[in-house]
Write a structure and sequence with these properties.
Blueprint: E1 17-18, H1 24-27, E2 39-42, H2 43-56, E3 66-69, E4 75-77, E5 80-87, E6 94-101, E7 104-108, H3 119-127, E8 135-137, H4 155-168
Parallel strand pairs: 1-2, 2-3, 7-8
Antiparallel strand pairs: 4-5, 5-6, 6-7
Protein backbone atom coordinates (compact mmCIF):
# COMPACT_ATOMS: atom_id res chain seq x y z
CA UNK A 1 0.00 0.00 0.00
CA UNK A 2 1.43 3.42 -0.87
CA UNK A 3 2.17 5.79 2.01
CA UNK A 4 -0.78 8.10 2.65
CA UNK A 5 -0.10 11.00 5.01
CA UNK A 6 -2.09 10.60 8.21
CA UNK A 7 -3.67 7.25 7.30
CA UNK A 8 -2.10 5.12 10.00
CA UNK A 9 -1.35 7.76 12.64
CA UNK A 10 -4.51 9.89 12.54
CA UNK A 11 -2.47 13.11 12.52
CA UNK A 12 -5.31 15.18 11.10
CA UNK A 13 -3.83 15.31 7.58
CA UNK A 14 -6.54 12.95 6.36
CA UNK A 15 -10.12 14.16 6.76
CA UNK A 16 -11.91 10.90 6.04
CA UNK A 17 -12.13 7.60 4.22
CA UNK A 18 -14.99 7.44 1.72
CA UNK A 19 -16.53 4.04 0.96
CA UNK A 20 -18.78 3.78 -2.08
CA UNK A 21 -20.09 0.25 -1.39
CA UNK A 22 -19.35 -2.86 0.68
CA UNK A 23 -17.42 -4.99 -1.82
CA UNK A 24 -14.01 -6.09 -0.56
CA UNK A 25 -12.09 -4.27 -3.31
CA UNK A 26 -13.55 -1.02 -1.96
CA UNK A 27 -13.24 -1.65 1.79
CA UNK A 28 -10.46 -4.21 2.20
CA UNK A 29 -7.81 -1.74 3.34
CA UNK A 30 -9.97 0.34 5.69
CA UNK A 31 -8.55 -1.60 8.63
CA UNK A 32 -5.25 0.25 8.05
CA UNK A 33 -6.88 3.62 8.64
CA UNK A 34 -6.35 5.05 12.11
CA UNK A 35 -9.49 4.51 14.24
CA UNK A 36 -9.91 8.29 14.70
CA UNK A 37 -10.38 8.96 10.96
CA UNK A 38 -14.05 9.40 10.02
CA UNK A 39 -15.47 6.92 7.53
CA UNK A 40 -18.25 7.81 5.11
CA UNK A 41 -20.42 4.81 4.17
CA UNK A 42 -24.05 3.92 3.59
CA UNK A 43 -25.92 2.83 6.71
CA UNK A 44 -26.99 -0.50 5.20
CA UNK A 45 -23.49 -1.05 3.77
CA UNK A 46 -22.05 -0.59 7.25
CA UNK A 47 -24.50 -3.15 8.66
CA UNK A 48 -23.58 -5.61 5.91
CA UNK A 49 -19.86 -5.24 6.71
CA UNK A 50 -20.34 -5.55 10.46
CA UNK A 51 -22.50 -8.66 10.16
CA UNK A 52 -20.18 -10.32 7.64
CA UNK A 53 -16.95 -9.41 9.46
CA UNK A 54 -16.81 -12.54 11.60
CA UNK A 55 -16.97 -15.05 8.79
CA UNK A 56 -15.98 -13.28 5.57
CA UNK A 57 -12.72 -11.54 6.51
CA UNK A 58 -14.33 -8.11 6.31
CA UNK A 59 -13.17 -5.10 8.32
CA UNK A 60 -15.22 -4.09 11.35
CA UNK A 61 -16.26 -0.47 11.57
CA UNK A 62 -17.57 -0.47 15.12
CA UNK A 63 -15.95 2.09 17.38
CA UNK A 64 -14.95 4.30 14.46
CA UNK A 65 -16.46 7.72 13.74
CA UNK A 66 -18.97 7.06 10.95
CA UNK A 67 -20.88 9.32 8.61
CA UNK A 68 -23.78 7.48 7.00
CA UNK A 69 -24.51 8.48 3.43
CA UNK A 70 -27.96 9.73 2.49
CA UNK A 71 -28.47 10.17 -1.23
CA UNK A 72 -28.29 13.83 -2.18
CA UNK A 73 -27.39 15.03 1.34
CA UNK A 74 -24.10 16.96 1.60
CA UNK A 75 -21.58 15.94 4.28
CA UNK A 76 -18.48 17.91 5.26
CA UNK A 77 -15.05 16.27 5.67
CA UNK A 78 -12.69 19.12 6.59
CA UNK A 79 -12.67 21.43 3.55
CA UNK A 80 -14.36 18.79 1.36
CA UNK A 81 -18.10 18.72 0.65
CA UNK A 82 -19.24 15.21 -0.27
CA UNK A 83 -22.61 14.51 -1.86
CA UNK A 84 -23.46 10.81 -2.23
CA UNK A 85 -25.83 9.56 -4.94
CA UNK A 86 -27.42 6.13 -4.60
CA UNK A 87 -26.63 3.99 -7.68
CA UNK A 88 -27.69 0.62 -9.05
CA UNK A 89 -25.01 -2.01 -8.37
CA UNK A 90 -24.80 -5.64 -7.33
CA UNK A 91 -23.69 -4.46 -3.89
CA UNK A 92 -26.59 -3.13 -1.87
CA UNK A 93 -26.34 0.51 -0.71
CA UNK A 94 -23.81 1.65 -3.35
CA UNK A 95 -23.06 5.32 -4.04
CA UNK A 96 -21.42 7.63 -6.53
CA UNK A 97 -19.74 10.62 -4.84
CA UNK A 98 -19.49 14.28 -5.79
CA UNK A 99 -16.54 15.85 -3.95
CA UNK A 100 -16.13 19.63 -3.89
CA UNK A 101 -13.35 21.84 -2.50
CA UNK A 102 -11.79 25.19 -3.37
CA UNK A 103 -14.22 25.71 -6.25
CA UNK A 104 -13.33 22.39 -7.93
CA UNK A 105 -15.74 19.48 -8.44
CA UNK A 106 -14.66 15.84 -8.73
CA UNK A 107 -17.24 13.17 -9.50
CA UNK A 108 -16.48 9.53 -8.66
CA UNK A 109 -18.91 7.12 -10.29
CA UNK A 110 -18.28 4.22 -7.93
CA UNK A 111 -19.29 0.84 -9.32
CA UNK A 112 -22.67 1.04 -11.04
CA UNK A 113 -24.88 -0.70 -13.55
CA UNK A 114 -27.96 0.23 -15.51
CA UNK A 115 -29.79 -3.09 -15.63
CA UNK A 116 -30.52 -4.12 -12.04
CA UNK A 117 -33.50 -3.74 -9.76
CA UNK A 118 -32.68 -0.06 -9.26
CA UNK A 119 -31.99 0.75 -12.93
CA UNK A 120 -34.25 3.80 -12.61
CA UNK A 121 -31.44 5.38 -10.56
CA UNK A 122 -29.11 4.99 -13.54
CA UNK A 123 -31.69 6.41 -15.95
CA UNK A 124 -32.26 9.41 -13.68
CA UNK A 125 -28.52 9.95 -13.34
CA UNK A 126 -28.03 9.93 -17.10
CA UNK A 127 -30.90 12.40 -17.49
CA UNK A 128 -29.77 14.65 -14.61
CA UNK A 129 -26.01 14.26 -13.98
CA UNK A 130 -24.08 16.58 -11.67
CA UNK A 131 -23.16 19.70 -13.63
CA UNK A 132 -19.85 21.53 -14.10
CA UNK A 133 -17.59 18.60 -13.18
CA UNK A 134 -13.86 19.35 -13.32
CA UNK A 135 -12.65 15.76 -12.85
CA UNK A 136 -14.48 12.51 -13.56
CA UNK A 137 -13.25 9.25 -12.00
CA UNK A 138 -15.26 6.40 -13.46
CA UNK A 139 -15.25 2.71 -12.64
CA UNK A 140 -15.34 0.19 -15.47
CA UNK A 141 -15.48 -3.30 -14.00
CA UNK A 142 -16.59 -5.15 -17.13
CA UNK A 143 -15.67 -2.74 -19.91
CA UNK A 144 -13.62 -4.47 -22.57
CA UNK A 145 -14.15 -8.07 -21.49
CA UNK A 146 -14.87 -8.97 -25.10
CA UNK A 147 -11.21 -9.69 -25.86
CA UNK A 148 -10.32 -6.13 -26.89
CA UNK A 149 -7.35 -6.20 -24.50
CA UNK A 150 -5.67 -8.70 -26.84
CA UNK A 151 -5.10 -5.81 -29.27
CA UNK A 152 -2.22 -4.50 -27.15
CA UNK A 153 0.46 -7.09 -26.33
CA UNK A 154 2.33 -4.81 -23.92
CA UNK A 155 2.11 -1.48 -22.10
CA UNK A 156 4.28 0.34 -24.65
CA UNK A 157 1.91 -0.50 -27.51
CA UNK A 158 -1.03 0.62 -25.40
CA UNK A 159 0.71 3.93 -24.64
CA UNK A 160 1.45 4.48 -28.34
CA UNK A 161 -2.20 3.86 -29.20
CA UNK A 162 -3.36 6.31 -26.52
CA UNK A 163 -0.99 9.03 -27.72
CA UNK A 164 -1.96 8.52 -31.36
CA UNK A 165 -5.70 8.58 -30.68
CA UNK A 166 -5.59 11.54 -28.31
CA UNK A 167 -3.50 13.60 -30.72
CA UNK A 168 -6.15 13.00 -33.40
CA UNK A 169 -9.08 13.76 -31.10
CA UNK A 170 -10.71 17.15 -30.90
CA UNK A 171 -12.02 18.23 -27.50
CA UNK A 172 -12.54 15.88 -24.58
CA UNK A 173 -10.85 12.46 -24.62
CA UNK A 174 -12.08 9.65 -22.37
CA UNK A 175 -10.27 6.40 -21.68
CA UNK A 176 -11.15 3.26 -19.76
CA UNK A 177 -8.62 1.04 -18.06
Amino acid sequence: MPPVAGLRCGSGDLFGVLISHPHKDHVGLVEYAHPSIPIGIGSAARQILDRAAGWLDRPRLEGRPLVHWQSGVVTQFGPFRVTPYLVDHSAYDAYALLIEADGARLFYSGDFRGHGRKRALFDRFVAEPPRKIDVLLMEGTVIGRDGASDSFPNEASLEEAFVERMQRAEGLSLAWT
